[in-house]
């Protein structure tokens, strides 16, 4: 009769542990899942939709209310995020009612990644990335600004340092469309150079603080999980 040596047993145990950890993290498919909703790594990994086109969306938890789960229990994360009774709390609850997968913390994490992608895509003149992340109106405005810049043979040299703060300041349902507005404070090194390479705006050596108020929206009646930027405002 043959026996396993210590090394063989060790690797068998390790394999079992890894299997259960992966199952806990990734879950098991039931056939009812929505399409993957983790687009903000798209700038690096380039995931594609069913038509072979790259997707860029805000990543949110794919959670549905469990059978028998009380309504108050569904709002635990929201109540921890915004004080119950406030307009912000009411708006977030309304979005949760329309989209059970919505979680404010997960939304903020995704919006922060979207913010960096949009800022850098604008600086690079990357219309393809912007089209996937912006509403038609905002996209047209960004593209017009890029075209104007290119017409003067100007280029933006930009380096994204990071986001200091990203807070949801308002949330509401407009018909079947969810709208979430964030105040974002970021740090950016940016300079605009003319055709000759001379700096005409900004400073390529200085980190500047930028304050923006951005609104993202999504049609909760659609199976499309994408949130898109629908309004921008720079805070003084």
Automatic annotation (TrEMBL):
Residues 88-234 form the Tim44-like domain. GO terms for molecular function: protein-folding chaperone binding. InterPro entries: NTF2-like_dom_sf, Tim44-like, Tim44-like_dom, UCP031890_Tim44-rel. Residues 31-65 are annotated as: Disordered. It is found in: Membrane. GO terms for biological process: protein import into mitochondrial matrix. It holds the Pfam family Tim44. PANTHER family: MITOCHONDRIAL IMPORT INNER MEMBRANE TRANSLOCASE SUBUNIT TIM44. This is Calcium-binding protein.
């Amino acid at each position: 009769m043959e026996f396993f040596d210590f090394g063989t047993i060790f690797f068998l145990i390790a394999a079992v542990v890894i299997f259960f950890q992966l199952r806990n993290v990734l879950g098991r498919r039931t056939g009812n899942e929505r399409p993957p909703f983790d687009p903000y790594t798209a700038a690096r990994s380039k995931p594609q939709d069913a038509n072979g086109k790259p997707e860029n969306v805000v990543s949110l938890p794919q959670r549905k209310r469990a059978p028998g789960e009380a309504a108050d229990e569904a709002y635990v994360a929201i109540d921890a995020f915004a004080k119950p009774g406030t307009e912000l709390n009411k708006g977030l609850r309304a979005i949760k009612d329309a989209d059970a997968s919505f979680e404010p913390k997960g939304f903020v994490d995704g919006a922060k990644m979207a913010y960096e992608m949009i800022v850098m895509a604008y600086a690079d003149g990357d219309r393809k990335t912007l089209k996937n992340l912006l509403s038609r109106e905002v996209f047209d405005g960004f593209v017009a600004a890029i075209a104007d810049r290119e017409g003067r043979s100007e280029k933006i040299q930009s380096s994204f340092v990071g986001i200091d703060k990203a807070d949801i300041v308002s949330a509401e349902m407009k018909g079947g469309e969810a709208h979430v507005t964030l105040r974002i404070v970021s740090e950016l090194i940016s300079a605009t150079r003319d055709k000759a390479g001379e700096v005409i705006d900004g400073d390529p050596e200085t980190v500047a603080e930028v304050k923006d108020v951005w609104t993202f929206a999504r049609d909760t009646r659609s199976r499309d999980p994408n949130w898109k930027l629908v309004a921008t405002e720079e805070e003084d």
